[in-house]
Give the backbone structure.
Amino acid sequence: MKKYTSVDDIQDLKEFLELAKKIKADPLANKKLGKDKTIGLLFFNPSLRTRLSTQKAAQNLGMECMVMNLNTEGWTLEFGDGEVMNGAASEHIKEAAQVVSQYCDIIAIRSFPTLKDKEKDEAETVISSFVKYASVPVISLEGATEHPLQALADALTIEEYKTKERPKVVLSWAPHPKALPQSVPNSFVKMMKKMDVDFIITHPKGYELNPSITEGVTIEHNQETAFQGADFIYAKNWSSYNDYGQITNQDPQWTIGKKQMELTNNAKFMHCLPVRRNVIVTDEILDSEASLVIPEANNRTFSAQAVITKLLTQ
Ligand code: SN0
């Protein structure tokens, strides 16, 4: 594997999940693999889990880790080709990516979408420019359209907690006061399409995700119908894709609570975090036995470690 910026970069999911499980059983077993190697984590946006779990994963492999908040601490970068740089941007991505490649064996980047310029977001301008100009492997720590490390942790969590061969997994939109990226649901959908699950998406009309990603997946606009018999409820807010970056619905009926969970097959509740309590999901559910959000966050370390292991070995 040369990079991990999309769920599409996974060739053999089964093998990947086996590796993650093996790593989880003995996280320090490969402590020498990363000796004298460095991973650079570059953030254009806030992070808690991604930053610490990736750092922890690198540490478990014996790697050094350098972290930089590029948006506040670095030079403003130019991404355009042939630009006359007499404006705000001080440094071109061409130099920046090559320079970071001198210091790091892997570069990992977080760069959220603008949610204003759909074309720019869909081009994954920041991460794809690093891929283009860096001379080392690149990992996405959540880009404009995907969050592939999260999706891998989610897959591992479902594997661990499923009680039947082919569980029913529901991705449910839930309300939020801010316009959020489609990255987490996009990667989750891609991942569920690779897994042996009965997968269904529920969201209000107007919240259709990119149709090329959801192609072939059942979409049910009635949340109660979708939840019937579910084994996993994966909650997430996202802003509108068609009405790009807009909030067109804040209906509290979509907040996940006891009423909805009672329709399921004693389903487990999942969310990538951070989660707005009593907006996305009620306290009652989040604080209940049904919630997997903490084991899910724990799995971020092992999925990141599996990805780094792959990048260092092949
Ligand atoms: C991000 C998102 O993509 O939805 C990161 C999730 C891993 N979430 C947020 O930005 C939530 C911010 C908030 O204020 O709740």
The pocket of N-(3-carboxypropanoyl)-L-norvaline is lined by residues 178, 180-181, 183-184, 272, 274, 276 (CB under 6 Å).
